């Protein structure tokens, strides 16, 4: 699980301004952290199918936000992809 300190760090890294917790970049970065955490969980719990469905929902949500950001501001999208190390 992503801790509060990790969330604060992610928000401060990707926020556009003070108090920005809802921009697409912040949301994508938080979802990415949750997805990475769940991937670590699955290395030890291979048959946890209930969490697997939650993982697929998180991935779908992140993909939709990425498509939105790509459609609205391509430069911000490219910077975010590079910062998170995601595939295009």
UniProtKB/TrEMBL annotation:
The entry's cellular-component GO terms read: cytosolic small ribosomal subunit
Q: How does it assemble?
A: Part of the 30S ribosomal subunit. Forms a bridge to the 50S subunit in the 70S ribosome, contacting the 23S rRNA.
| PANTHER family named in the record | RIBOSOMAL PROTEIN S15, BACTERIAL AND ORGANELLAR (PTHR23321), SMALL RIBOSOMAL SUBUNIT PROTEIN US15M (PTHR23321:SF26)
Top-level taxonomic group: Bacteria
Checking CDD domains in the record gives:
Ribosomal_S15p_S13e
Some GO term, biological process aspect, for this entry: which one? translation
Protein name in the entry = Small ribosomal subunit protein uS15
Task: Give the InterPro entries listed for this entry.
Answer: Ribosomal_uS15, Ribosomal_uS15_bac-type, uS15_NS1_RNA-bd_sf
Family note:
Belongs to the universal ribosomal protein uS15 family.
UniProt cross-references to Pfam families, sorted A to Z: Ribosomal_S15
Among its keywords, does the record have Plastid?
A: no
**What keywords were assigned to this record?**
Ribonucleoprotein, Ribosomal protein, RNA-binding, rRNA-binding
- Summarize the protein's role: Forms an intersubunit bridge (bridge B4) with the 23S rRNA of the 50S subunit in the ribosome.
Enumerate the GO terms in the molecular function aspect: rRNA binding; structural constituent of ribosome
Q: Which Gene3D superfamilies match?
A: 6.10.250.3130, S15/NS1, RNA-binding
Q: Which HAMAP family match?
A: Ribosomal_uS15_B
């Amino acid at each position: 699980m992503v801790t509060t300190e990790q969330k604060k760090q992610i928000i401060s890294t990707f926020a556009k301004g003070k108090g920005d917790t809802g921009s697409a970049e912040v949301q994508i970065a938080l979802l990415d952290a949750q997805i990475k955490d769940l991937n670590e969980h699955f290395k030890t719990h291979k048959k946890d199918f209930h969490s697997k469905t939650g993982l697929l929902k998180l991935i779908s949500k992140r993909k939709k936000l990425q498509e939105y950001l790509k459609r609205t501001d391509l430069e911000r999208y490219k910077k975010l992809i590079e910062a998170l190390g995601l595939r295009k």
